[in-house]
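Changelog-adjacent note: as of this version, every example in the card shows the full chain rather than a window. The one below runs 468 residues end to end.
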Amino acid sequence: MDVGSGSESGEENGVVGENGQVESVFFDNAAEDARKEQEHRQGLLDKQREARALVLPTADADVRLELRNRGEPVCLFGEDAHDRRERLRALVLEEKESKPSDEQTEAKEEENKVEPAPEEFFTEGLEELKQARLKILKKSLHKSRDRLVESRKRIRSVEFREEGNEVYASMQNVALVSSQIGDSRPLAACAFSSGAQDPSTIATGSWSGLVKLWDANSGAPPLVLKGHTERISHLAFHPSKQGVIASCSADKTVHLWDTKREERDRVTAIYRDHADRVSGVAFHPDGELLGSSSFDTTWRLYDLETGTCLLLQEGHSKPIYRIAFHPDGSLAASCGLDRAARVWDNRSGRCIMTFTGHVDSVLGADFSPDGYQLATGSNDNSIKIWDLRKRRCFYTIAAHSSCVTSVKYQPGSGHVLLSTSFDKTAKVWSRRGYVLVGVLSNHEEKVTCGDIGGNAEHIVTTCYDKTW
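Full-length structure tokens:
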């Protein structure tokens, strides 16, 4: 999909300078006003729902007795029996709100209890894992320093803000430039090429177990990668090596492909360590490690040079659906059907954060390029933005009318966040205030996955209707 110029929408939502360019787009105030209005309405609805659930006497004599016992006037001027009962309802609701609930009392008692320190359990790791952790430590320190310097520059950069305004405005004029039937069965995954590769290369994975590489510009016949025996779950391009791609499948395997080789030599590695369906795969930013998540409630870390499984990480109580790496490489995030997202320190192996707030399975996760936030999409139709510095959710987006199947930040600048859903749409959200700036509604069935190019000029989505 292509993105238009957005000049008309920019004039509607911002200030146009002398050169005809959009100088400012006022999304922040609109987002804050909308959030406050939503919270106010939600509070009123909750109070009305709680008031209707109260059990009150229906006889007027009993209502009068209850009012008298509370020291209230038995009858007000012009008040009938219905008005008296509603006045009693309001009084009872006010008393209930002012008095702490049993759950709050129990929670306070639990906080005051002194629990014995849990016994720490660990399994001794490989020497290769230790060396990998030391290498991650050294590289992540340099990357973190560079990232923070760049982040401080962007805060003071007028050009960076104007670039974001242009992206927001252009996203309001999204145009469909290409659509292909990708397979004879539904498509489950897609990804843009990254790093030094041609950004027009698109990889798709289907329920037939085939991985196909497409040239979005020429529409040439795809390169077909055969090897999986069950449906594809997820795909990922290598961050720096051209033509290298990883795929995972319900056949419990992870395949590593090199598309620059001859057909018989394209499968460079097959990992068969998981005991159940492999649901997610991601390359470490350094390009030397590969992570995979599985329905066996674990995620694994592989050394691409030796093919060794360095780490078997447990922690989730139910199947894990996705895995993602922090831009520095120091952290990893996993999410799954236990309604939680966990953040792991790759340098120590510890789970340093557990984010709980979704009321249903968490199906997608992605770190923002500046490294400060983690976005998660859930089967409860919402997206939550977690602040890694404050270790809490600071924004919840009521994103779709059905489950959110994937979330993806724009690589590099991170101006926008892409989400896909079973409500047959993909939506683009501004990073500044998380306001909806674009809706893609060309598919006729459930949208299963999406990805966005680094310059936000192209967006690709896959769907149950077998098209991308």
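Structural remarks: The chain has a mean pLDDT of 84.
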